[in-house]
Task: structure prediction
Amino acid sequence: MRNKTTFFSLVLIIALLAMMLAACAPAQPAEPPAEQPPAEPPAQQPTEAPKEEPAAPEKPFAGTELVLASMTDQYVAAFRYLIPKFEEETGIKITLDELGYVDLYQKLTADFVGHTANYDLMTVDIVWSGEYAQNKYTLPLDDFMERDKDELQLDDIMPVAWTLGEWEGQHWAYPLAGYANVLNYRKDVFADAGLEPPKTQEELLEYAKMLTKPEEDFYGIALLGAKGPAVAQDYMVFVQQHGSSILDEQGNVAINTPKNVEVLKFFGELFKYAPPGATDYWWDQRETAFRSGNVAMMEGWSIARAGYENPDISSVVGKVDIALAPVAEGMEPKYGFGGWGIGINADSENAEAAWEFIKWLTSPEVQKDWILNDGAPIRRSTLEDPELNEKFPWFPVLLESFEKGDGDYRPRIPEYSIIQDALGTTVNAYLVGEMTAEEALEQAQAQVEAALK
Amino acid sequence: MLLSPLLIFIVVIAIYPLFFSFYISFFKYRLTDPNQTRTFLGLANYINAFKDPQVTGAIANTLIFVAGTVIVEIALGLGLALLFAAESRRTQMLRSWMLIPMALPPLVVGLVWKSLYNVDFGVIPYYLKQLGLDMGRGPLGELQWAMPAVILIDVWQWTPLIMVIFLAGLKSLPHEPYEAARVDGATRWQSFWYITLPMLKPTFLVALLLRTMQSFKVFDIIYATTGGGPGSATTVLNYHIYTVGMVFFKMGYAAALANILLIIVAALAILYIIVLERQQI
Result:
C-alpha cells in the first residue's frame, strides 16, 4: 500500500513539474525557424518601383490600413489628434497602439523576429538605431527620401535630428521627435536664495546641496535611480556632461575607466540631495517629484516642459524655467540629444502608405500642429516660428541645445541594450550601497564583455 | 480514442516544449540573430551558469525567498486554520473574507503594494516614520529590507491558501484519539503536539509542495515591485531567466537556466516526500 501511495505522489509531482516547466520554458515561435538565412536581404529595396508624382488619383492609398506602435510619451497626444486628420485627407486608416517603453521594445522585437508584421509603423528610440539597422528590422528609407527630396525640405531638419535613426549612412527611421537634455529649475526658489541657474556641473552639485532642506521635505535635485534603463540613461547623461564616454576612441566598450568612476561618484554624491525615494525613480516618478514642487532642479528631456504650465498635472505653474544643461568646467559645451524616430517595418506590405504618413507628419505645415499638441520639434523652421516662440518661450534654449546636440552620448550601437542592462543593475547597486563605484563599473564592463562573446 | 484530443493537446503545449527546451539548452541560440544560427555547445550553458555570479546570486535569492515565504506562510496558515476551525457563523464569514487576496492577480497585488511601500506618498513608510522608524529609501529601496518586503507581499497573498489546506486537513481528522487523550488527562497543548501535528503530516506535505513550487516560480510580484532591485537584492532565478530569455532573447542559455530551476525544485520535492513518508512509519 505504502509503495503505491509513494508511486502515486511521484507521478503527481512529475506531472506538476512538467506543467511548471511548460510555464517557465521560453516562448517559442509557432514553428521552428528552420529556414536558411534569407537569400535576399528582406526588402532591402521598396518593392514597388518609385511611382511618378501621384497627380492623377486623388487618394491613391484609400482603404489601406496601417498599425502604428507608439511609445506612450507626451507626443502620443499629438498622434491622437493628427491621425484622424490624416485619415480624412488620404483615406488611409491608422490604428494607434500605445505601449510603455519596455513593452514596446519587446513587442516590436517579437514582431520583427517572427516576421509577423503586426505593426507597419513604429516609433524607434534613438538608441535602437544601430540594432535595428544591423538586423534590418526596419526599411531603409533612403530610396523614398531620394525620390521625394523636393517636397521633404531635408535641409530644414536639424542636423542632430538625423541621429534619430541614421546608421552607417542609411536611414532606418525618420526623425519624429527631438528631445534636448535641459535643466529645469524653480525660478522662485532660485530667486529666494539669490542664485542664478547653475552653468557648470560643480555649481549644480553646490546648489543642490544648498537648496536641500530635508526637514521641509524639499530637495535640491530629482534624478533617475530605478534599476534598469532609467538609472543607466541618467548616469550616461552625466558621463556626457563631464566630457567622458562609454566607448573609447576606437568605438570599443570602455565603461570601466577612472574618469567614469569619478563621474559615478559624482552621480552618487548628487543622490544625497535628491528625495529619499529617488533610487526607485523611473521617468514618471521623477516628473511627479518636480511637478509637485518638492525639488529645486531637474535635468530632463525638453518635451516635458510644456506640461509644467498645465495646472491639471502641475503645481508649479509659472514657477519653472529652463536653461542649457550644465557641463563640467572647462569642457566645450555639448548637450545630450535624444528622442524618437519613426520607422517602417521591413516586413510591412504597406510601406508606400506608411511612407505617405511619415512624409505628411513631418512636413513643415503639419509640424506646427504636432508641436501645439505636445509633439516635439525636429525642424529649424518650427523652432524659429514666431507664433510657436510666443507660446513656448523656451524654444531658443532648445534651438541652441539642438545646434550643439550630441545624439551619441548613449552609444547607438547594436549592443546598446546590453550596455544599458549592465549599467542599469550595477549603477543602481552602487547607489544603494551594494557595491563600490569601482566594483560597479568593473562588473558592468565584465557583463558586457561576456555578453558580446 | 476519446482521450486523443487531450493527449494531443498535452503533447503540443507541454511535452514538445519540454523536450525542445532541453534540446536548445545545449545550443547557443539567440532569437534576434539575423542568421538564426544554432551552435552546438554541449554542456557549456550549464557550466557557465554556475560560473556566472548573476546566476549564483539569483539562486541564493530564490532560496531565501522560498524559505522565507514557505516557513512564514505555513506557520501563519496553520495558526489561522486552528483559529477558524470551529464552526460558527462568524468564522464562516471571516474565512471567506480571508480568501480575497488569493483571488487577486499577482500583478495587481504587486502594484498595490508598491504604492503602499512608496516612500514619497505610501502609507506604510508614513506610519513607520510616525512610529520613529525611518526607512530611508523605503522598504523596496533599502538593500536589507527589499527581500523581507517582497516576502511579506507573497505571505499576504498566499497564506489564505495554506489556511484552506489546513482547514481541510483538520476537518478530516478522526475524533477518537482526542477523546482518548482527554480521558488520559492530556492538556490541550499535549493533544495538539502529539495528536494533531503528527496526523496533519500528509497535509503538511501538500502545503509544502504546493508553496515551495509556486515560490520557486515567483515572477509577477518581483516584476511589478522591484524589477529585481535594488541592485540585485531581489533578483530571483525566474526573473533572471526572463531577462536572459525575453529581454536578450538568448534562448539557449535561458532554457539551460530554466532546466536548472526544474532540477532544483524536483530534487527538493522528492526530498520532502522521502522525509515525510519515512516519518509516517
Q: What stands out?
A: The radius of gyration of chain B is 23 Å. The mean pLDDT of chain B is 89.
